[in-house]
Amino acid sequence: MNEIKWGIIGCGDVTEVKSGPAFSKIPGSKLVAVMRRDALKAADYAERHQVGQWYSDAEKMMNNAGINAVYIATPPSSHLFYVQEALQKGLNVYVEKPVTVSAAESKQMLEAVKTSGGKLVVAHYRRAVPLFLKIKDLIDLKVIGEIRTIQIRMWQSQKPQLIAKTERNWRVDPAVSGGGYFHDLAPHQLDILYFYFGKPLKYHGYSLNQSKESLADDHVCGQILFENNVMVNGSWCFNVAEEQETDTCEIVGSEGKITFAFFGNYVTWEVLGKTETEVFVHPPHIEQPMIEQVVSYFNDQRDNPCSIEEAITTMEIIDAFTS
User: Fold this and answer.
1) Residue 163 confidence (pLDDT)
2) Going from the N-terminus, what domains does the chain have, and what CATH number goes with each?
3) What DSSP string runs through 69-80?
4) pLDDT of amino acid 167
């Protein structure tokens, strides 16, 4: 097994706990360099996390740090550029979600993978988190019978607590994020449904900017029909009162119902009048289980835990809901 020597491009707030420390806590994996355009912040991150090298230029890091893999955690508008650069240099890539700002860009990323022969994994990390694997087991074992309908409600205020705080709220700048809070949160939800139910057959939706608080749409609705006849109805609204906030997914079957929060730590299932709930303690670094799978994939020990082809489908659904 070859040691995966990582460099982070974009060592911002999202990498502080969620992902960054995990790279050096996995056997055969080590974080050796970090990059941020603000040199002082890059140096500070490296010192606090005991990383040996820091850079303010991504190309210099990729050329000089002795790494063989990069984790790209910049805002989505720069993902394609950095992925192309890394793959051309012979580096394998783990890139944050949303993978790009549009399906068209994600298809360009696929071409970069094909022409380089490198490996790329998209950071839809819920696929490896124990809570979501438990839900998959409940579905696969048909604990609630045949799936009839799935209802998603993600309603948040104009300043959602679910969103990581940044100095500049680029998440509601469509030029940087691709859209608004929907583009930041929905990829997690849409991808896990793909993971559970397979390829979608049809999807459509619509969006609008109700509050006019930013340039981004803040209300999105959509429907998905999967090839196995599972139907999804989703509602994402980011302009409700704090008292109306909810994060709920209900999977209703012929014999019962599964309920969970995409950004929570529990799952409840009701079958024939009996209710059970399991509460999970998430890993300290929630992306660590996924990164473990990425390391194994880079070492040819397993298949790709989340491919660019799968991420393209997620981006196509997002575009269909918001175009």
Assistant:
1) 76
2) 4-124 (3.40.50.720), 130-282 (3.30.360.10)
3) EEEE-S-GGGHH
4) 66
